[in-house]
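so my prof wants the structure for this chain in the tokens format not the other one, which i didnt know existed until like an hour ago. anyway here's the sequence
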Amino acid sequence: MKKMKSFRLCAPEPPPTLPLPPAPARVASDFSAEEMAVLAKTFIPVLERYHKHRRITLGILHVLMPCWFAIVIFSKSLGNAVDFVAPACFLLIVTMIIFPRLPDCPGCLKRPHTPFGQFCPECGSRSLLPSGWSYVSNCRACKRTIQWRKGRRFKVCHCTHCGLHLDKDGF
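here's what i got, hopefully its the right format
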């Protein structure tokens, strides 16, 4: 007869965390005020172009989707809907292809939002706890939960790799 092992009460183990990525050669505290001003001047046009393309793409999407639904619902024959839907889908695909990705950080030349570095994208402090398998990180300074489930649920005001301030409103 086998002996039963004793039942032990224990706290569940915390989820495994990923090791911190290597820090870039320079972080935000290493830049002088003049260098930060130059980096901000070079980043502003890139960010404005990104916002412009984003507004155009979302505008086209907001116009095309209701029109497409109205044509599909109210048309008597499917031929009329296909005549409109094909060019509309083509226009949407072309717009999304030319839609720029999020701009790179001018300080470390990495993508400022993924994968998470050591800095919080909202407040810029170097107190971001690394995420494990759940894609959820916590900032100890601003007490924010930075999630990457079903899309990005945070604003990028600072680069997560070097902590450089990128935009006051976030993108």
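also thought this was worth mentioning. The chain has a mean pLDDT of 76.
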